[in-house]
Design goal:
By secondary structure, the protein is mainly alpha-helical. The protein has seven helices and no strands. The longest helix has 21 residues.
Length: 145
C-alpha cells in the first residue's frame, strides 16, 4: 500500500467534493472516504505484491460498497473524479470496467451490504471479487515486458 497511500490521501478532498456534488451529505461524503480507505487497505492486504489483482479487487469492492451505501450517482461521481487526470488510458479503461461491475453488484446486493459495518462489507466484497478476478470477469492491464 505504500506506493498508493500518498496519492490516495492527496485525492481525499477531490473525492469528498465529488461525493457532495453528487448529492451526498457532509456525513455521507466522509463515509465515502472511509469506504475508499478501507477498500485500498483490504485489497492491499489480500493481494500483496500483485498490483493487477489488487487493483481489480479494490475497484470492484470500492464501487460495490459505495453504491450499496450511498447510491449509484455518488459512486459513479467519485469514480470519475478518481480517474480524472490519469495518464494511462488502458488503466482507466480497466478501472472503469471493474467499477461498473462493482456498481452493478452493489445495486443488486445493497440491502445486505448496508447492514454490514464497512470493514465487513469490504471484506465480503473482496471474497466475492476473487473468483470474478480468476474467471476474467474483473480485468487487469497486461503489463508490457
Amino acid at each position: 500500500m505504500a506506493g498508493l497511500g500518498l496519492r490516495s490521501l492527496s485525492q481525499a478532498p477531490r473525492l469528498y467534493r465529488a461525493a457532495r456534488s453528487a448529492g451526498a451529505s457532509a456525513r455521507d461524503a466522509g463515509g465515502v472516504l472511509l469506504v475508499s480507505v478501507q477498500a485500498l487497505s483490504t485489497a492491499a492486504t489480500r493481494s500483496p505484491g500483485r498490483f493487477g489483482r489488487q487493483n481489480a479487487l479494490r475497484h470492484f469492492a470500492w464501487q460495490a460498497c459505495l453504491t450499496a451505501m450511498y447510491g449509484v450517482e455518488v459512486a459513479r461521481a467519485v469514480a470519475v473524479e478518481q480517474e480524472r487526470g490519469t495518464k494511462r488510458p488502458e488503466d482507466t479503461a480497466v478501472d472503469e470496467h471493474n467499477n461498473e461491475v462493482g456498481r452493478r453488484f452493489g445495486a443488486e446486493h445493497a440491502r445486505e451490504l448496508r447492514d454490514l459495518p464497512v470493514r465487513a462489507a469490504i471484506g465480503r466484497l473482496c471474497d466475492v471479487a476473487e473468483p470474478m478476478w480468476r474467471s476474467g470477469e474483473l480485468r487487469v492491464v497486461e503489463r508490457r515486458r
